[in-house]
Design goal:
The complex is a heterodimer of chains A (315) and B (245). Chain A is mostly helical and 315 residues long. Chain A has one domain. Chain A has 15 helices and 2 strands. In chain A, strands 1-2 form a two-stranded antiparallel sheet. In chain A, helix 7 packs antiparallel against helix 10 and helix 13 packs across helix 14. The longest helix of chain A is centred in the C-terminal third of the chain and has 27 residues. Chain A is globular. By secondary structure, chain B is an alpha/beta fold. Helices cover 35% and strands 24% of the residues of chain B. Chain B contains 9 helices and 10 strands. A 6-stranded mixed beta sheet of chain B has the order 6-7-8-3-9-10, with helices on both faces. In chain B, strands 2-1-4-5 form a 4-stranded antiparallel beta sheet, with helices on one face. In chain B, a hairpin with a 2-residue loop joins strand 1 and strand 2. The chains are: A mainly alpha (315), B alpha/beta (245). At the A-B interface, helix 8 and helix 9 of A face helix 2, helix 3 and helix 5 of B.
Chain lengths: 315, 245
């Protein structure tokens, strides 16, 4: 696609997302749209590290969960607005990511991915065993609406739709900024040829840490939004490895390293998931994993550059 | 003796029981072209990797502009003014030719527009300006080597380490490469050139250093080296006759 065609497509997609809840008024449709936007935001955030810098993380649920838990705990115990909690969660996740990144970035390729699975599992195990954060039972958030700052909207799901859309736009904007700054060039150089990048002065550790910190911050913001939308969180829903895989898969399915890829991938992935839930029944747990597995095989065999790869020149 | 730009003293590098470099010493003056030659496995690339910061030497010292740099990582060495190419080319394949050069330029110029301007200059210098918008992976092997030179030059180095940039080139391409090395020197950049292509290195080098089994066996002007019996026996054989030798 030409540059102009891509901007037109992006503008049309944005308009569609803006009017969607007014055109499709059934709650199931609206809820699916919110899930798509939220997954897209996570895919875009993951892409900063996994796509641009080529560091495949399968532990992003740890950051998502950090966002969900930090804002929820601040809201439950201290009455702090989840909006501020969202920033606090992002900061906490970024800090965690840097602590994880320091040792894990010594590992290359598959070994890095394996280490992130381990980290994700460890965080989940720790939360599962900690009574002070609700352990395996989880946390219920305050239900009453207190205006915009309360971040609880019971009468209509519309606010969640637009918050999710805003967050997605913010994540895309950050990615766009990174992509066109020297950091984006360095990340792509690191992905292509790490030794050559070092030979022209690129500190691998520093730039990978930038990428993971930004990526985890944005992922954690998505975690807070999830917590405020569901008003209930537990380790299974916010810290599981299957969530980590889903986040990575959204970006990989759409096309890693491209700006729009994770959005396209998330829409498709969520669509397939919701459809399989309708077809195979309510429990979902088993079938969505089968769908993920099937998609991974299909991408690996037929289309490693994802859906965006079908549209020609990546950007 | 004038202060050397690069001074390597007693460089030894062991990998387990394997001695890749044994007590290698040499100096490179500012703006000088030094050729590093020797049979395969003589330790030429290991010397490169030590100077460029990719390996810390087991023992020995490396000075750049009079400051000790042994064991500093590659990204530090790049900042200090040492740039390199790779024996097996390592261009950023998914990035465009221009973007490859820009990544080099960004070492000293973070602003993308300025890096693009300098990257274009570097591409012009190596004759790749017309290919700027293509993905680097689509270039021929010879072009990728030139691109590595452009990327290295874009970092504005004082010392350029060229690792077999002429290998596999046609005779006319070798001529082009010789010309390129001369023009690099004309910009005041010193070069250390690892090369097997004698027609490429003999005409441009001010001095040659001959390595064999990790040790220096000879050092001097190309014409002298070409006549050195030890070098002829170890490496050149009887077939190479330097012009005028």
């Amino acid at each position: 696609m030409s540059r102009r065609a891509r901007w037109v497509a992006a503008a049309l997609a944005l308009v569609f997302a803006l009017v969607f809840p007014f055109v499709f008024t059934r709650p199931t449709w609206q809820n699916t749209a919110i899930l798509m936007l939220m997954t897209a935001e996570l895919g875009v955030a993951w892409n900063l590290l996994g796509g641009m810098a080529g560091q495949v993380s399968l532990g992003h649920a740890a950051f998502f969960g950090t966002g969900a838990y930090v804002s929820s705990l601040l809201s439950i115990h201290l009455g702090i607005s989840p909006w501020l909690g969202m920033l606090a969660g992002g900061a906490a996740a970024a800090l965690l990511s840097v602590l994880i990144g320091f040792p894990c970035f010594r590992l290359k390729g598959h070994y890095f991915a394996m280490a992130t699975i381990a980290v994700g599992e460890i965080v989940q195990a720790v939360v599962n065993g900690s009574e002070s954060v609700g352990a395996a039972v989880g946390l219920y958030l305050p239900l009453e609406e207190k205006g915009f700052w309360g971040f609880v909207f019971n009468r209509s799901k519309l606010p969640y739709h637009y918050i999710a859309l805003g967050l997605l736009m913010a994540a895309l904007f950050v990615s766009w900024l990174v992509n066109r700054s020297h950091v984006g060039y360095y990340l792509r150089a690191i992905k292509d040829e790490p030794d050559a990048a070092r030979s022209v002065g690129v500190s691998l550790r520093r730039y990978k840490l930038y990428a993971i910190a930004l990526s985890s911050f944005l992922t954690a913001m998505g975690g807070t939004l999830y917590a405020q939308k569901e008003l209930f969180i537990d380790p299974g829903s916010t810290l599981s490895t299957s969530l980590s895989i889903k986040i990575a898969l959204a970006a990989i399915l759409g096309g890693v390293g491209t700006l729009a890829g994770p959005v396209v991938g998330a829409v498709l992935l969520t669509g397939i998931e919701e459809a399989s839930r309708i077809v195979f029944g309510g429990t979902g747990q088993g079938t969505d994993l089968v769908v993920y597995g099937l998609l991974i095989v299909l991408i690996a065999v037929y289309q490693p550059s994802g859906i965006m790869g079908l549209l020609g020149r990546p950007s | 003796m004038t202060a050397a730009l690069l001074e390597v003293e007693g460089l030894t590098k062991r990998f387990g029981g394997l001695v890749a470099n044994q007590d290698v010493s040499f100096r490179v003056a500012a703006g000088e072209i030094v050729g590093l030659i020797g049979p395969n496995g003589a330790g030429k690339t290991t010397v490169f990797n030590a100077v460029a910061g990719f390996f810390a030497p087991t023992s020995g010292a490396i000075w750049l502009d009079g400051r000790s740099v042994a064991g500093k990582p590659p990204e530090r060495m790049a900042a200090l003014g040492v740039a390199r190419t790779f024996q097996i080319v390592r261009v950023f394949r998914t990035m465009t030719v221009l973007e490859n050069a820009m990544v080099g330029a960004m070492l000293r110029h973070r602003a993308v527009a300025e890096a693009a301007r300098r990257g274009r200059d570097a591409l012009g210098f190596v004759g790749l300006a017309a290919r700027a918008a293509e993905p680097a992976g689509r270039l021929t092997a010879a072009e990728q080597k030139r691109l590595e030179v452009a990327r290295a030059l874009a970092t504005e180095p004082k010392l350029l380490l060229l690792d077999e940039v002429m290998a596999g080139l046609t005779p006319s391409e070798v001529q082009g490469a010789v010309e390129l090395v001369r023009r690099v020197r004309a910009r005041g950049i010193a070069c250390v050139v690892v090369e097997h292509v004698m027609e490429g290195i003999m005409p441009v080098a001010d001095r040659l250093i001959v390595l064999e089994r990790g040790r220096t066996i000879a050092e001097g002007p190309p014409a002298e080296i070409a006549r050195d019996p030890a070098v002829v026996a170890a490496y050149l054989g009887e077939t190479y006759h330097a012009p005028g030798a």
